[in-house]
Amino acid sequence: MKVLVLYYSTFGNVLDMARLVAEGVESVPGAEAVIRTVPELMPDEIIQGNDGMKAGREKQKDIPLVTDEDFREAGAIAFGTPTRFGNMAAQLKNRIDQVSALWMEGVFEDKPAGIFVSTASLHGGQEATITSSLGPLMHLGMIPVGVPYSTQELFVTQGGGSPYGPGHVAGGNNDRAIDSEESAICRALGARLARIGLKLQG
Description:
The protein is of the alpha/beta class. It has helices at 13-26, 44-48, 51-59, 68-73, 90-96, 100-105, 126-139, 180-201; strands spanning 2-7, 32-37, 74-84, 87-88, 112-119, 143-144, 167-169. Strands 1, 2, 3, 4, 5, 6 and 7 form a seven-stranded mixed beta sheet that branches. The longest helix has 22 residues, at 180-201. The radius of gyration is 16 Å and the shape is globular. The mean pLDDT is 97.
C-alpha cells in the first residue's frame, strides 16, 4: 500500500519532516512512502532575494509534483505544511482546491490522513494550523489520524509535536535542526498512517 506524503516547504524544513514521516511509513511491512510536493505560488523575485528560500528551492528541485494518480493510488495521506497565521500554506491549499473531480469520484473517502507542520517560534500556531486544516480533509471524506501518547516523546518534546500531529520549531532563521523528539513523532505518524491504512484496506 502506498502512503502519499504530500508537503509544501519554503526553506526545506517541512521536506525534512516529510522524509522522517516516510521513514515511519516504510517501517511498516507492506507500506511504501511516496513523497510529493505542490507548485510554488510565491513570485520568483522574492525567492531569489532570500538566501534561505533559494537554498530551500535547490534542496527540493528533484521532488516530483503530486498528480491525480498519486491521490488515487494512496491508501493513506500525510499532509505537511508550514504555518501561515494558523492555516496551511496557500500552496498546499491551492492544490487541495483542485481535487474536486477526485472528490466527486470518492477517491479520498475512508482514507486516513495526518498533518505535520513547522513554525519559526515555539507557539507559532502548530495546533491551530492542524485543526484548521482538518476542515478540507473532512469534506473529502478522510479519517483524521493524530499521534497518541503511547508515543513517549510527546511527554518530553521541547520543540514541536502534539497529539494533533508532528511539529517542528525551525527558529527565527529557519535553520534549527529537527531534534530527536520531533523526529520520533514524525516517524510515529507515518507508521500509524501505514498501519491504519493497511487495516482499512483489509
